[in-house]
Specification:
The protein is α/β, with parallel strands linked by helices. The chain contains ten helices and 20 strands. It has two domains: 3-82 and 228-416, Aminopeptidase; 84-211, Roll (Aminopeptidase i, Domain 2). A nine-stranded mixed beta sheet has the order 1-2-3-13-4-14-18-16-17, with helices on both faces. It has a six-stranded antiparallel beta sheet with strand order 8-7-10-5-6-9, with helices on both faces.
Length: 419
């Protein structure tokens, strides 16, 4: 796949995936189009060599794999979630002439960029149908229904120097001046748009606000891609396209976990059992299972901090990744990243043989280092792992920025592991 088609597909994927549920559903459809068959964890598996499969857990995490006689799997791991504002259960607040929604920040999001944005709402809703059965469905309002207005500088003269944001009181989106607003009626209206007309009662929901501005190219030469949720749908897309591009006889796996932004400790997170359960069912013989793990490689793909041209001092001078200069190998002496000299060397060798650029990132020694699903998975399974990422600015903002060259380059390097 050439870079233009790759990036056009990426923009569409980003726009169609406002939540982990939607991202997972979109990946499911792409896998089905590529000939992958769905497995269900609650059913007995009968795997056939030379076929391709996928599994979904919690509607928000996905694993896809080819079933090959070869045990040296190339695994690509990413995460489906991004920082956002999630709706609270009793969310409707009516005061001061408007209707507001109570929200709770999810993950380590930058709050300032959320002000004065056209927001919509999407996620999963559970309801009771006419047969007294609890069902789940995804909704995406799409309409620009809310905004978080800034406080005018006239009312806060120190806004540009000292303003802080209170997560409980300052970031509540306003929806309407209509005091008759009813949340259950609103949700039923959204269900009707999905041709669901027998919802007797609305139960729980997992709904998140998102920016309605579309993903787009930015720059004089379309140098950049700007979008919400680049961290980490960018890596999800790279991993997904990679496994869809190989033959069924090629041993490969793609893992997209939820809840990385809040620590990965959930049934669908990387600290959970999803991947291990899947691998044990693929290789029920323990000797085969261990042989597969020790002959395979995990590429943990999560965005990397590009050097900010206005804040270069925030980076180690010798390890300052630049956008459109290749994928980033992430290294940390304290094992916040799982890369080691063996896995790094293999990545370097494959990239060099393909003529693809690569960079290395080490955080400043006096600045804390984030982590990824890489160390979690390496610890749990004992699989050789490398942490890589694509250089990004504005990470955890409502709109992030990445180079338009880098994702396609990483895609080619991952495919190079299969040659």
């Amino acid at each position: 796949m050439d870079k233009k088609d790759f990036n056009e597909g990426l923009l569409g994927f980003l726009d169609a995936s406002p939540t982990p549920f939607h991202a997972t559903n979109n990946m499911k459809m792409m896998l089905q189009n590529a000939g992958f068959l769905r497995l269900y964890e609650e059913q007995k598996w009968r795997l056939d060599e030379g076929k391709k499969y996928y599994i979904i857990r919690n509607d928000s995490s996905l694993i896809a794999f080819t079933y090959s006689k070869n045990k040296n799997y190339v695994m690509v791991g990413a995460h489906t979630d991004s920082p956002n504002l999630k709706l609270k259960p009793n969310s409707v607040i009516k005061e001061h002439g408007v209707v507001k929604f109570g929200v709770e920040p999810y993950g380590g999001l930058l709050l300032n960029p959320w002000f004065d944005r056209d927001l919509s709402l999407a996620g999963r809703v559970s309801y009771l149908d006419s047969n007294n059965t609890i069902k789940d469905t995804l909704i995406d309002v799409k309409k620009k229904i809310a905004i978080i207005p800034s406080l005018a500088i006239h009312l806060d003269e120190k806004a540009n120097s000292e303003r802080t944001i209170n997560k409980q009181t300052d970031i509540l989106p306003i929806l309407t001046t209509n005091d008759d607003f009813n949340f259950e009626d609103f949700i039923k209206w959204q269900l009707e748009k999905n041709d669901i007309r027998d919802a007797k009662e609305i139960y729980a929901n997992e709904l998140s606000f998102y920016d309605t501005q579309k993903a787009s190219y930015v720059g004089l030469r379309d140098d950049f891609i700007a979008s919400a949720r680049l961290d980490n749908l960018l890596s999800c897309y790279v991993g997904l396209l990679s496994i869809c591009s190989v033959e069924a006889s090629t041993p490969m796996m793609f893992i997209a976990n939820d809840h990385e932004e809040v620590g990965s400790e959930s049934t669908s997170g990387a600290s959970g059992s999803f991947l291990e359960n899947t691998l044990r069912r693929m290789y029920p013989d323990y000797e085969d299972y261990i042989q597969m793990l020790r002959s395979s490689t995990l590429i943990s793909a999560d965005n990397a901090h590009a050097v900010h041209p206005n804040y270069p001092s925030k980076h180690d001078k010798e390890h300052s990744p630049k956008m459109n200069k290749g994928a980033v190998i992430k290294i940390n002496a304290n094992q916040r990243y799982a890369s080691n000299s063996k896995t790094i060397s293999k990545f370097m060798n494959i990239a060099s043989n393909l003529g693809e650029e690569y960079q290395q990132f080490v955080t400043r020694s006096d600045i804390g280092c984030g982590s990824t699903i890489g160390p979690l998975t390496a610890t749990r399974l004992g699989i050789e792992t490398i942490d890589v990422g694509l250089p990004t600015l504005g990470m955890h903002s409502i709109r992030e920025l990445a180079g338009s060259e880098d994702a396609h380059s990483l895609y080619k390097i991952i495919l190079g592991y299969t040659l």
